[in-house]
């Protein structure tokens, strides 16, 4: 197993550490852990390309690690004792979109025998704003950040989450009918 995959596995092991810090109401430590996980996300891809260690395992583990970290963040921040949390509707929309995309991909694969996966700009912006929303929520539990700023980031993340779901729906229908 190459260094890149080991870095990805480290990110997976950071998820329970992150969740434990949330459970013990330690937003600073949770934020630091989340940031370290983010660095490992950038690092594993860089190392894989630089050392020519791009593997099928890495292509599977990397998005799983990313989604597991983000979904854990949304669920456990919502259910935490933190003073500033995600609204319930936001958590439902974010997780529903991921489940929707996974099920849609599975249906296309089962019906067509293959699946073209092309990340959209809306998907990338969704990921960016979802990560930013986690950073802002955790930071708002450490330092003062006006709730208007916190909710603006959450609303922007919601808009891109919905837009990306619509974009992937259109792309999925194109693959099914084309």
Please explain how this structure is put together.
The chain folds into two domains: 1-82; 84-178. The protein has six helices and no strands. The radius of gyration is 17 Å and the shape is globular. With 178 residues, the protein is mostly helical. Helices cover 81% and strands 0% of the residues. It has helices spanning 3-23, 27-50, 56-78, 88-112, 121-140, 147-177.
Write the layout of secondary structure elements.
Layout: H1 3-23, H2 27-50, H3 56-78, H4 88-112, H5 121-140, H6 147-177
Helix pairs in contact: 1-2, 1-3, 2-3, 3-4, 3-5, 4-6, 5-6
Q: Which key terms come to mind for this protein?
A:
178 residues; 2 domains; globular; 6 helices; single chain; mainly alpha
Concise account of the structure shown:
By secondary structure, the protein is mainly α.
Average pLDDT rating: 94
> Could you tell me the radius of gyration in angstroms?
17 Å
Described by its quaternary structure, the protein is single chain
Structural domains: how many: 2
Which ranges are low-confidence, i.e. pLDDT below 50, for 5 or more consecutive residues? Answer: none
User: Distance N terminus to C terminus?
Assistant: 38 Å
Structural class: mainly alpha
Mass-distribution shape: globular
Secondary structure: number of strands: 0
Order of helices and strands: HHHHHH
Q: Please count the helical segments.
A: 6
Question: Percent helix among the residues?
Answer: over 70%
Tell me the β content: under 5%
């Amino acid at each position: 197993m190459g260094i890149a995959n080991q870095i990805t596995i480290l990110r997976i092991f950071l998820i329970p550490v992150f969740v434990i810090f949330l459970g013990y109401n330690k937003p600073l430590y949770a934020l630091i852990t989340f940031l370290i996980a983010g660095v490992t996300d950038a690092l594993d891809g860089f190392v894989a390309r630089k050392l020519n260690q791009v593997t099928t395992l890495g292509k599977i583990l990397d998005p799983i690690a990313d989604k597991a970290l983000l979904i854990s963040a949304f669920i456990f921040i919502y259910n935490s004792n933190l003073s500033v949390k995600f609204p319930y509707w936001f958590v439902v929309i974010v997780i529903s979109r991921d489940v929707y995309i996974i099920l849609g991909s599975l249906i296309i694969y089962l019906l067509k025998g293959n699946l073209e996966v092309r990340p959209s700009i809306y998907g990338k912006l969704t990921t960016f704003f979802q990560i930013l929303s986690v950073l802002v929520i955790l930071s708002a539990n450490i330092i003062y950040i006006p709730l208007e700023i916190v909710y603006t980031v959450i609303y922007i993340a919601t808009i891109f989450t919905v837009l990306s779901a619509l974009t992937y729906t259109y792309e999925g229908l194109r693959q099914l009918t084309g």
